[in-house]
Amino acid sequence: MADTLTGAFDLTGRNAVVTGANTGLGQAIAVALAEAGAGIVAVGRSGMDKTEERVRALGRPFRAVRADLSTLEPVERVVAEAQELGRIDVLVNNAGIIRRADALDFTEADWDAVMDVNLKSVFFLSQAVARRMLADERGGRIINIASLLSFQGGIRIPSYTASKSGLAGLTRLLACEWAGRGINVNAIAPGYFVTNNTAALRADPERNGQILGRIPAGRWGDPGDIGGAAVFLASPAAAYVHGIVLPVDGGWLAR
Ligand code: NAD
């Protein structure tokens, strides 16, 4: 543990790999970790210009790694390129997709696409990173971005609910295997945030009204609302926290 409360949240000298960091929650998490002192490796399919600009403005090291995490093909390369910035201390598995259709009409393609990005690649990237974290016995942090659908059923998103419920279980399993070896594995469950992921919901006045009416905080989450939880789980302050799924949801689950 760090000596002071402020120091307990300090990530100076650590490096964090964040997948899907070009936009939305991934970008907000990368910026928050950089604010706390971390160097950032931003992994994703598209340009990371805005994220790079914000991280560099904070004076932190930055590297972008292009990778499509819909297959396992890039996993070893992602780790190798990330290590060019330095040791990987934190991995944030944020990249995720959603497909919407009634369960009766849901296709195999939409099932596989979501499971591959949201669950399969998360597991194998975590495995690849954990092997390095364990090799030098300095441990690390893995933070999975789960969902309210890790706790609830939802409607019209069967593969998303299956993947995010599976991710909560995977978080607990990895915590059980690696807690004793110095790796803290935890998850964050964002509520309803204003990002591309929820554009369809916000564009539908009826769904938008239903969702807003259920959130005790009375507003959608802003991506800036997520960073504190990520900094906490990445930091010395969370040294004894393992296997939790931390909701950041404006009170949704409390209702
Ligand atoms: P977003 O659509 O804005 O961002 C998703 C990110 O994942 C993007 O950076 C995208 O490029 C990346 N990504 C998707 N497929 C990829 C692939 N094959 N390879 C590499 N990168 C890929 O949405 P967001 O809301 O910022 O989502 C981030 C995470 O938060 C997701 O896991 C999502 O399920 C989760 N989440 C979001 C909300 C919300 O309300 N927005 C709620 C709960 C959970």
What are the SSEs and their pairings?
Blueprint: E1 15-19, H1 24-35, E2 39-44, H2 49-57, E3 62-66, H3 75-82, E4 90-93, H4 108-135, E5 140-145, H5 158-178, E6 183-190, H6 199-203, H7 205-214, H8 227-234, E7 245-248
Parallel strand pairs: 1-2, 1-4, 2-3, 4-5, 5-6, 6-7
Helix pairs in contact: 1-2, 1-8, 4-5
Keywords: Oxidoreductase
Organism: Methylobacterium variabile
GO molecular function, one term: 2-deoxy-D-gluconate 3-dehydrogenase activity
Computed Rg: 17 Å
Q: Beta fraction of the residues? A: 5-15%
| Poorly predicted residue ranges | none
Bound molecules: nicotinamide-adenine-dinucleotide
User: What is the mean predicted local confidence, pLDDT?
Assistant: 96
Domain Ketoreductase: 14-214
Organism: Methylobacterium variabile
InterPro entries: 2-deoxy-D-gluc_3_DH, KR_dom, NAD(P)-bd_dom_sf, Sc_DH/Rdtase_CS, SDR_fam
Pfam families: adh_short_C2
Describe this structure in words.
One of its GO terms (molecular function) is NAD binding. Keywords: Oxidoreductase. This is 3-ketoacyl-ACP reductase. The protein is of the alpha/beta class and 255 residues long. It has a single domain (2-254), classed as NAD(P)-binding Rossmann-like Domain (Rossmann fold, 3-Layer(aba) Sandwich), CATH 3.40.50.720. Helices cover 40% and strands 15% of the residues. It has 8 helices and 7 strands; from the N terminus they run βαβαβαβαβαβαααβ. The longest helix has 28 residues, at 108-135.
